[in-house]
Amino acid sequence: MTTSTQAYGEPWYWDNRYSNEPGPFDWYQKYLTLAPIINLYVPRHHSTLVVGCGNSAFSEGMVDDGYSDVVNVDISSVVIEAMQNKYKDRPHLKYMKMDVRDMSAFESESFGAVIDKGTLDSILVSDDAH
């Protein structure tokens, strides 16, 4: 039997979740909280890849803060379609269905930065965060 955490790597799990919970969701921190760190390490003129974007407003916050090219990928076709529809009038935000275990759609060094917000969130809320 598959537990819910074992299913996190499966597209059907996320398709089901985003079908049942379509509202925006940020796991721990919102963009404004993380902006000082992002601004320190990610130049605004670089293309940025956000992996496992879900339906977070994180990338919207980046674009509102002056980032000009934010590409978002997620394994869920349900969430990608929803985000493409939501941001169809925001050309700086791009959404693609993709499994991050296969990034062959992108050439090497296509992005100046790659952000995994879930990992960043986890690090910043740990007792060892500096």
TrEMBL record:
InterPro entries: Lys/N-term_MeTrsfase_sf, Methyltransf_11, SAM-dependent_MTases_sf
Keywords noted in UniProt: Methyltransferase, Transferase
Molecular function GO labels: S-adenosylmethionine-dependent methyltransferase activity
Keyword Methyltransferase listed: yes
Pfam families: Methyltransf_11 (PF08241)
SUPFAM superfamilies: S-adenosyl-L-methionine-dependent methyltransferases (SSF53335)
Entry keyword Transferase: yes
Domain Methyltransferase type intervals: 49-121
Top-level lineage group: Eukaryota
Any one of the GO BP annotations: methylation
Sequence similarity: Belongs to the methyltransferase superfamily.
PANTHER family tied to this protein: METHYLTRANSFERASE TYPE 11 DOMAIN-CONTAINING PROTEIN, SAM-DEPENDENT METHYLTRANSFERASE SUPERFAMILY PROTEIN
Protein name: Methyltransferase type 11 domain-containing protein
